Amino acid sequence: MKPRITAADAGEIRLGGLHVRRMGFGAMRVCGPGVWGAPRDRAGAHRVFRRAIELGVNFFDTADSYGPEVDEELIAEALHPYPQGLVIATKGGLVRPHRSAWDPDGRPAHLRSALEGSLKRLRLERIDLYQLHAPDPRVPFADSVGALADMQREGKIRHIGVSNVSLEELETARRIAAIVSVQNEYNVGERSSDDVLDACRRLGIAFLPWYPLGAGAALRSAGVKRVAKRHGASPAQVALAWLLARSPVMLPIPGTASLEHLEENVAAAALGIPAEELASL
């Protein structure tokens, strides 16, 4: 009998005082089309969440803007009371006035309201990892991070992360609060955050790559497809294995609404591709 593959095969990573497996789950994709509204199959979304837990995933990433305000409710419906060891990370700082809008709002008053809403929807008294979703050019970045630091001191946030930041913004945030994670776009075809990733490795900060499959672009890479064919794997598995090998602080969070793709993604944790082949990508 083949050994059961779980997210534990990816190893663990530290998030402040927490330890999670390096194959996480991005919950955004279970929402309706365009990350807008409820999924057509609500029960199916619940099954995906529960199967992720069965596969050993103990880190879920979400945001109040997914739906908006739908994704967090779905997680609570499916999983509350939460299994021991599950870390739910959420984000605030983007608003969705309509389907195609992702507008930054980093005002401290908005972030406080966003956090309170997330606590209510997730049925929590404290968020384990709360991330500023994006810098707001209309608001001093230090003010936005400072608002999160204030709420951390109040006991509503355990750990703070930042997202979509430059190296300079990361350094600014670290002067205000202990930052345990950065979430930037990163994949085989998008490496503009290499400097931020390298800083995270040096500092022991987890790096969560959003769009880990490049919205499908990574799967069309000739190099990725060549390695996948050689090892009898899917291009998605190769792209995720590359991320895991790229840095020990990498915490991929592939998302899907499909049970089949969920199983495929988690299996990438145990994909034995030689380092030199992954480096060639």
Task: Please give a structural write-up.
With 281 residues, the chain is α/β, with parallel strands linked by helices. The protein has a single domain, classed as Alpha-Beta Barrel (TIM Barrel). It contains ten helices and eleven strands. It has helices at 42-54, 71-79, 108-122, 141-153, 167-176, 194-203, 222-231, 235-246, 259-267, 275-279, and strands at residues 12-15, 18-21, 25-26, 59-61, 87-92, 94-95, 103-104, 127-132, 157-163, 179-185, 206-210. A seven-stranded parallel sheet has the order 3-4-5-8-9-10-11, covered by helices on one side.
Mean pLDDT figure: 95
Rg computed from alpha carbons, rounded to a whole number of angstroms:
18 Å
Beta strand count:
11
Structurally, how many domains make up the residues?
A: 1
What is the CATH superfamily label?
A: NADP-dependent oxidoreductase domain
The main sheet orders its strands as 3-4-5-8-9-10-11
Shape descriptor reads: globular
Poorly predicted runs:
none
Helix content: 25-40%
Helix run count: 10
* Percentage of residues in DSSP E strands: 15-25%
The run of helices and strands is EEEHEHEEEHEHEHEHEHHHH
Which structural category fits the helices and strands?
alpha/beta
**Largest sheet composition:** 7 strands, parallel
Q: Give the class-level CATH name.
A: Alpha Beta
Which secondary structure elements does this structure contain, and how are they paired or packed?
Layout: E1 12-15, E2 18-21, E3 25-26, H1 42-54, E4 59-61, H2 71-79, E5 87-92, E6 94-95, E7 103-104, H3 108-122, E8 127-132, H4 141-153, E9 157-163, H5 167-176, E10 179-185, H6 194-203, E11 206-210, H7 222-231, H8 235-246, H9 259-267, H10 275-279
Helix pairs in contact: 1-2, 1-9, 3-4, 4-5, 7-8
